[in-house]
Amino acid sequence: MMADRNGVCHVMESEVDAQIRQTQTQPQANNNRPNWSNGQCVVSVPSCSSLNPSFDLSLCRAKLENDGFQIPVSDMEAPLKAALDVPSVRRYMVFNSALFHFIMAPVLYVVVWCAVFSTLHLYITVSDYWVLCLSVSLVSIFLTTAIIFILHHSNKEINMNLDVRLIQVNERMVKHKLLVAVADWVQNCTGNMQLYVVYWDMSRCLRALTETLEEHSFVANDIQRKLRRKLSHLVLVSEVTAADPEVSSSDVEQDLDEQRPLLGHEDTGCRASSSQREDAKVTTNYSIIPDLLLPPQAKAYQLLMTYSAAYVKLLVSERLSGPSHHRLRSRRNHCNTAPLCLCQYIKKKILR
């Protein structure tokens, strides 16, 4: 992903220029490909199971080929499996799904009702039993609503465990003018978790966001403070092995010296040291906040990639807030199916 070992995200300006030239000069790949517009859903693949979320990527790739998108396995299936086909990610998708929250709401109400009733029954004596039950029910409804509201409010529009993991996928898919995201909601008391592939030509959004950053270049420090405030909670945590060149040998040797037993034979210590060296891992943090020294074009490209999956998730679930009437939409809106395009969404959420 777009990160170096110092924890500063980095995008090469030449790659961004190549992306612009590719999107501007690329002809129609196939004659059978329809004229897609930004925001149109090309393919949606439902999850195979609600308890073990997984997607049929071969079926998704076949549907894309029928629509004229020839995408190699290294650009779609391999990065999607690396991002989503992880047990910890699957567990997160289950416990953070809308269906799980829908089921937990009445369970939480029953738990709160029993806790409040058992507490008030010890200290308050009421002749009419229904008055006590009614009071407990009202208090339980209020507490349950407050807890659900707090949990919903704390759930960011972009999260580390899913949206940020899809950044590396969208970095590859944007070359084919596609973006992917995972969205779910409850419909008819059943979960609806799907993998969405949306058509998106990034050239216009990249150009518009670059112009905005260039216009605000005289207040670059103010923009950087806004980015830190909005993106400070997005930190990638990864484990680097001792053989990785990014880890200094002195730090690894110091850790091994601390773990080496004080008593023991010399050869045994050498064997233990070699085995510990193979298993030694260092946890490193990577920030996705764009570097202040990056050119506006590279910084705009990084922001677009960072919020691509989160924007598509809100787009397909119709949760983007903005002027709904066509006449009230901005002329710089590059999406006909939503009140805000990707660059406008970034301007609204970060740069304001």
UniProtKB/TrEMBL annotation:
The keyword Membrane appears for this protein: yes
Keyword annotations of the record: Membrane, Transmembrane, Transmembrane helix
Protein name: Transmembrane protein 268
Membrane spanning stretches: 98-123, 129-151
Species in which this protein is naturally found: Seriola lalandi dorsalis
Keyword Ligase tagged: no
Superkingdom to which the source organism belongs: Eukaryota
